Hints:
The chain is mainly alpha-helical. It has two helices and no strands.
Amino acid sequence: MERDIEFDFIHSTVFTRYSGIKACPLPTSSSFMPYGNQHSSRTLERASTT
């Protein structure tokens, strides 16, 4: 349980950092998007399992 909370916290930090990057158009931002969607679906999967 604690590990999940820690993981979510790390993801929040990454997401916040990504929001800042999103402000300036970078080639890497588009390649980062699929990862964000993939993580979101995985989080929903884990939530339904619990």
